[in-house]
Amino acid sequence: MTDTITLTGLVATTPRHLVTSEGLSITSFRLASTQRRFDRSRDRWVDGDTNWYTITCFRQLAINVSGSVLKGDRVVVTGRLRIRDWSSGEKAGTNIEVDADAVGHDLTWGTTTFSRSISSTMVEKADAFPPMGSNGAVDSNGAADSNNAAHINGAADPDDSDDQGGAVQFLDPDGESLESAAVPF
């Protein structure tokens, strides 16, 4: 049985990134999660016990976490919980690990700026198609279209005030039209 858990806490160690011999990216860090509660007798907030978790990220998430998360950042983590007992000579304990599905900054404590990354498999697929102008956007006649380029690349177009969307034409490697689809912007 797989238990999914969502945690908030402080990144307590510098995220450690490595790539295995098979090319699998892995990033891990320790997360300190301290619950706070309001103590009515003292009329103030007090810290409870701190729970410690080892967070492990794989593949594209690992790459993005290693470039985005620093020691001391407040984060939100969602993933699969694993609890493992261990012993080493006279010592024994329990490790609580989370295989992360998602990691993000906790916006309760500050702001962040998002920048979308493209995985290497998406780049390989894009390289299979010939370039169609500087950004790959084409108009309904198959010519390079600079007006919708910002929308297709994910950027806002300050000159476009109608927000009605646009048409994107898909081309095969020979430049022939495959289909058209309306894309909301």
Compile the SSE list and pairings.
Layout: E1 3-11, E2 16-19, E3 25-39, E4 44-58, H1 59-68, E5 74-88, E6 91-105, H2 120-127, H3 149-152, E7 166-171, E8 177-183
Parallel strand pairs: 4-6
Antiparallel strand pairs: 1-3, 1-5, 2-3, 3-4, 5-6, 7-8
Please outline the major beta sheet.
5 strands, mixed, barrel
Number of helices: 3
User: Low-confidence spans: pLDDT under 50, at least 5 residues?
Assistant: 133-142, 144-166, 180-185
Give the CA-based shape: globular
* Helix content percent band: 10-25%
Please list the strands of the largest sheet in the order they lie side by side: 1-3-4-6-5
The total beta strand count reads 8
Report the portion of residues in β strands. over 45%
Q: Cα-atom Rg, whole angstroms?
A: 23 Å
Order of helices and strands: EEEEHEEHHEE
Q: Quick check: average pLDDT? A: 75
Structural class by sheet pairing and helices: mainly beta
How many angstroms separate the termini? 41 Å
